[in-house]
Specification:
By secondary structure, the chain is an alpha/beta fold. Helix content is 35%, strand content 20%. Strands 5, 6, 7, 8, 9, 10, 11 and 12 form an eight-stranded mixed sheet that branches. The protein is globular and about 55 Å long. It binds S-adenosylmethionine. The site of S-adenosylmethionine has 19 residues, from α6 and β6.
């Protein structure tokens, strides 16, 4: 493993994936990730965004699984944030992997949705766009400053039917009930590390941190399943590739009962680099030059 790989993470990757896959993950974390954006359909169409990029001389590439996602191979983020269409909220800078959970969630118009860990709002605004602002979204965020950032992004993106709650989602009243829930859980970020630019984060990556994070993830998932209407579906996601935050969290929920995995259709995400998973039907994205490491599981709560 490279010298800049946090020792504990390197050890876990070897243990969980074996040498070949661990080397693939390491290479992905060490590569310079391309900037990507999502066209905000509440304000613009892909054709208009592509024309604006052409005019600005910015090259873009598409992906197989979404017309709204564009990869910008030659530029840094500041080249995009300087564009008027960014200021107008017609695009949102979002990693490709991070666009997958809202697509898997499959929210529909008229539904009452919960985004449990929402700031800065990439996925909340994506769900608002996917439902044409015709679903009611409650967006929860524990940290006050991040909740403010979330409100700012919602306003700029034109996400009109979102109520922000600045609260620890574990404290949500059990009287609430939702048609669909996204739990994009706080995590170690093991899938998004930029090896070589880690600084102090390298030392922070420890067994203790991971145990604490996994405990919070488990508690949030338990809460999500209590708030979900029977017979309805939710998505659990992390930007981690570690089993403790992914498969193990899901397996604990399955063991408690009353919930099953709804398989993510791999055909819907052609071209996405994947890793082996311990819970069949879940999806783990391997980090590379285009994608961040990510985990996505769809769950259905049993009918009463
Ligand atoms: N879904 C967001 C997006 O797509 O832009 C990214 C979410 S980030 C992975 C996790 C967020 O959860 C952070 O903003 C963090 O402050 C928040 N958070 C952490 N613990 C929380 C809790 N117990 N309740 C609500 N929010 C929490």
């Amino acid at each position: 493993m490279r010298e800049d790989m946090p020792a504990f993470l390197g050890e876990q990757l070897l243990l969980q994936y074996g040498e070949e896959e661990a080397a693939r993950i390491e290479a992905g974390l060490a590569s310079r990730r391309r900037v990507s954006l999502r066209v905000n359909r509440l304000k613009a169409e892909p054709k208009a965004v592509m024309e604006a990029l052409d005019e600005a001389g910015i090259r873009y590439e598409g992906v197989l699984w979404s017309e709204d996602a564009l990869v910008l191979p030659d530029v840094r983020e500041d080249a995009l944030t300087a564009l008027p269409l960014y200021e107008r909220g017609e695009i949102y800078l979002q990693s490709l992997s991070s666009m997958i959970p809202p697509l898997v969630l499959g929210a529909r118009e008229g539904e009452n949705l919960l985004d449990m860990a929402a700031a800065p709002g990439g996925k909340t605004t994506q769900i608002a766009a996917l439902t044409g602002n015709r679903a009611m979204i409650t967006a929860c965020e524990r940290h006050a400053a991040r909740a403010e950032r979330l409100k700012f992004n919602l306003a700029r993106q034109g996400a009109a039917r979102v109520t922000v709650m600045n609260i620890d989602a574990r404290q949500l009243d059990d009287l609430f009930s939702f048609d669909r829930i996204l739990l994009d859980a706080p995590c170690s970020g093991s899938g998004t590390l930029a090896l070589g630019a880690l600084g102090r984060r390298k030392a922070q990556f420890s067994r203790e941190l991971l145990a604490r994070t996994a405990k919070t993830q488990g508690a949030l998932l338990e809460k999500a399943l209590r708030l979900l209407r029977p017979g309805h579906e939710m998505v659990y996601s992390t930007c981690s590739v570690l089993e403790q935050e992914n498969g193990e969290v899901i397996r604990r929920a399955l063991k408690r009962g009353g919930v099953q995995v709804v398989p993510v259709d791999p055909a819907a995400f052609g071209g996405v680099p994947t890793l082996p998973v311990s819970v069949p039907g879940t999806l783990c994205v391997c980090p590379d030059e285009r994608y961040e490491g990510f985990f996505v599981a769809k769950l259905r709560k049993a009918e009463r």
